[in-house]
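QA checklist item 7 of 12: single-chain prediction sanity check.
[x] sequence parsed
[x] length recorded as 200
[x] structure emitted
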Amino acid sequence: MKDFKGKLFVFSAPSGSGKTTIVRHLLKQKKFNLEFSISATSREPRGFEKDGEDYYFIDLKDFKNKIKSDEFLEWEEVYRDNFYGTLKSEVERIWALKKHVIFDIDVVGGLRIKKKFPNETLSVFVKPPSVDELKIRLKKRKTESEEKINMRIAKASVELATAPQFDKIIKNYDLHVALEEAEELMSAFLELEKEPKTNS
C-alpha cells in the first residue's frame, strides 16, 4: 500500500438505516474521487447480485484460508458460517487508481478499519429514526424471512450502542438532509473548497 495513499470513508449502520443510499449518492459526486470497496462474503448471492460488483463471493473453505493467510483488512462472522470482510487487495486496487475508498460496512468492520488507519479514516454511523422504523423498512424489501428480519433487528439494538465510537453520526430522519450532511462531512475531511450556493 505505497505511492498514493488515499482517504478511507467508512459508513456503518444497522440494516435498513439508509447507509447504502447515502454511499451510492456520494459515489456519484465526482469531486470526491471515490471508488467503492467491494466486500467479500461467504454467503450465496441474493437476487440479481453479481460477483465482483456487489460482493466477492468466496466459498466458506476459501474464506477461512484467506483469514489464515492474513489477506483481510478486517473480517467478521456475522452469523454462523456467514463471513464478511474487506480484502487488503481491494484497498490496494483502489489506491492504485489514485482514488479514495468508501465502505458500506457493518459496525465491527468499520471500527476495525478506523483502528488500522486512524488518521486516514473518517468513520460515520448512520442512525435510523427508530428500531420500529427499521423493521418496517426491512419488511418492505421483501428479500428475507421474518426470522432473518428479527435477527437483524436484535443485532441493530447492539449496533446502535456503538454509535458514539464513530467520528460522526448522521441521523437519517430525512434523506435529503442526511445526504447534504454526508457531503459536508466528506468535503471537510478532504479539505475541499466549499462551492458557493446558487440562488435558484
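[x] summary fact logged: Strands lie at 8-12, 34-36, 40-41, 56-57, 72-79, 82-87, 100-104, 121-127, 168-171.
[ ] second reviewer sign-off
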